[in-house]
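Ticket #4471: structure export looks truncated?
Reporter: QA, pipeline team
Priority: medium

Steps to reproduce: submit the single chain below to the structure queue and open the exported record.
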Amino acid sequence: MKSIKISLLMGFILFYFVGNIKAQTKVGLLAGPSMSYQAVLEKNSTSNKNIENAAPIVGFHIGGFMTSNISEKIESELVIKFSQQGAAFDKSLTKSQIYRYIYAPLSINYYPVKKWSINVGTDLGFLIHTKRAPKDNIFDLGLHAGTSFNIIDDLSIGVRYMHGFSKVIEGTLTDENGAPDGEFSFRNRLFELSLKYTLHTFPDKK
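Actual output as written to the record:
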């Protein structure tokens, strides 16, 4: 199953590149800080116990992007990036769990005005390193929304929020007698601030 998912991811990326060869395309680099935490979802619990969301920690991301014009005001964007994120599991922030992912977000960017865009899309992440997460939960699927502003022609700044749906950590709740009483799972939540620099535009600017 893991090999099938990896093959689908690579096929999706290849399809994106081939399908946008003839469109005006920009390629570049992006990087910036991030703040992430993990939200807990409980299921079938009858007790009064509540597991709190894991506290946020600061991380970073770095990668490359490719944007292609669909129309005058709409473009598609594929990003391949490394993201260091995680969560803290106590108030002193000393028991934090770090996750390192490779993400491939795909966005549709809409420009209401020339230099400002609204961005929505999907995220598919592949976990490459952590110390504690179960090996089965190596994929992270989510949706994101954000906005960006072109400072100059080749430089822009943007913010985005990613809402993960995959179970990063999961377990069983117990009642006062230690008997099973429902299930819980933690899922990624991520805020990013990115600085993006365009290296080249195809075809070349006139």
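Status: closed, not a bug. The export was complete when the record was re-opened. Leaving a note from the reviewer for reference: The chain has a mean pLDDT of 81.
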